């Protein structure tokens, strides 16, 4: 599979959500990722009373919703969470999960920003959450989040969708990541995704292998 084989998430939101649902049904990869994040990010989150997080391709909240509840809100007094997610179906499902988990949150949909990018939001005393309806490159170039630097940046199976990897990583390291911040990447190589039988059962072998590193 090449980048040109991947669907445009803005024009195929429903199709992408259906394909993702199939992947989720036949894979335990997300459970593996949750355990890895819990073991590795909890000690880092415990160092902050106020934590800022950017998730590149945050998806429907299966993983990130867990991180928010079990790591960020559990260990930090307040969390600023920004998610970049072009799929409307995923953003709305994420917000539904947040609303189901707590009756104290206020949810907003399709709010305008000065640069023209729409955001969905979830706000409470302990979290300011914005989900940006755009791709990562536009998020960076528009400076829609302002001069924010993030203590933790997460890219979970989203690097495949970056148009140019090197400039994107430059933006992450030199514009978005706070001093001594943490970048975590979960990425499947072509060897990881070698399929020897139908559907997606092979995905059960995938586990995050990168250690937490500091800049």
Task: Describe the overall structure.
The protein has 215 residues and is an alpha/beta fold. It has a single domain (51-205), classed as Vaccinia Virus protein VP39 (Rossmann fold, 3-Layer(aba) Sandwich), CATH 3.40.50.150. 35% of the residues lie in helices and 22% in strands. It contains six helices and seven strands. It has helices spanning 13-25, 29-45, 64-75, 88-101, 136-142, 165-176, and strands at 50-56, 78-84, 106-111, 119-123, 127-132, 150-156, 177-186. A seven-stranded mixed β-sheet has the order 3-4-5-2-1-6-7, with helices on both faces. A hairpin with a 3-residue loop joins strand 4 (119-123) and strand 5 (127-132). Helix 2 (29-45) packs parallel to helix 3. It is globular.
